[in-house]
Fold this protein.
Amino acid sequence: MAIRPNSPAARDVAYSLHPYTNARKHEEKGPMIIERGKGVYVYDDQGKEYLEGLSGLWSVAVGFGEDRLVEAATKQMRKLPYYHTFAHKSHDPSIDLAEKLAAMAPGKLRNTARVFFTNSGSEANDTAVKLIWYYNNAIGRPEKKKIISRIKGYHGVTIASGSLTGLPYNHRDFDLPIANILHTACPHHYRFAEPGESEEEFASRLAGHLEQLILDEGPETIAAFIGEPAMGAGGVITPPATYWEKIQRICRKHDILVVADEVINGFGRTGKMFGCDTYGIDPDMMTVSKALSSSYMPISALLISDELYQGIAENTAKIGTFGHGFTASGHPVATAVALENIKIIEERKLVENAATLTPRLQNGLRAFTDHPLVGEVRGVGMLAAIELVADKASKAAFDPVGVVGTYLFERCQDHGLILRNLGDTLAFCPPLICTEKDIDTLLERFGAALEDTAAWMKSKGQAAE
Ligand SMILES: *Cc1c(COP(=O)(O)O)cnc(C)c1O
């Protein structure tokens, strides 16, 4: 499609570098311009409607065009558009949101957590890394600094959080990862279990790998383990049964902090309020963003246990100040919007709605299991993935990776469904306000796009049996 001169697309191509985009291809094709959104649908500049099957970027839980959030933002903008939270200052929205998050938090964080506000998931995880280091210096164990993350984990793209991320594109030619970040095995049963190995056996083997890594490095050098309860951007990978229980046991044994990255899982995505609730995780630290404000405003937060807080607080008293914070930490408009967003999630019982719709979405997608292109259908709550394979029996991936996935992703868009393909894995993460009918529409549109893809494969003489 030619790009109209002076169109938004032409301007964009001239001046922008886009995340997760091949810049040269982008110059040729131009961007898809999304103009407006309402409920679970968005519309492009040609007026074409799309069901947003990924909630934007895994985040617009309450859907598009939610007037209550617009009003919360406008009201706060009029009253106090900005104030900071440095040097003994604060304001109501920031205090209220911190209290609210502590009151909702899982495990030992409940009612005792201290909250530090940041502006993106990456910043929240960077702050987690800095506070882990600061805390261990504060309590006199400066050698305990290494942080273990997982292959295919996603924790953002800034220098520390990009290092925690376990995906090649986020490291390559960026000179990452930095020192003191280690990656342990990915808990994907379909891909990495031995033939005949049960989920429980696989989980035990992974816990064994983790412990071996800790012993090889020296437990006195390992500070923390970070993970998404269910992995998102690495391919929507749900942990095998008993995984988190076994991982936590190893961490406790060696006095290693457990950090839960709830940036996608948080606020109902897994069918409970937090992924930690779904998987029985009792974290020492937790990061949230995305559905925290349904992405209407950029905001994220790091929750830390009282024990960590006390160690850190004591050190700030010793040094004289806490030398960390962002100009927009706890921004009044962003915190006001997040508060209203959580109110909507609670009042409309969107977590319960996610739990109710879970079988419809998960079983609906599992109905594609027998399709010749489908290797695995997986997911939890309102989060799911379909992984395409070249050969079902051997689970062989396509070579090169991503061509078929991209084709299917584009056919989904033709049929009015926006998803995201992570290589040859299609990710699903529809808004929590979905109705049964919306789920059925999603499944129908996906099914039609999958048939188009199968027909295309056949025409190329590459049809899988
Ligand atoms: C999106 C995401 C991040 C990073 O958030 P940004 O706001 O893009 O920096 C971190 N962790 C997880 C689990 C995410 O999905």
In short: The pocket of pyridoxal-5'-phosphate is lined by residues 58, 120-122, 125, 154-156, 228, 232-233, 261, 263-264, 289 (CB under 6 Å). The longest helix spans residues 436-459. The radius of gyration is 22 Å. The longest strand covers residues 374-380.
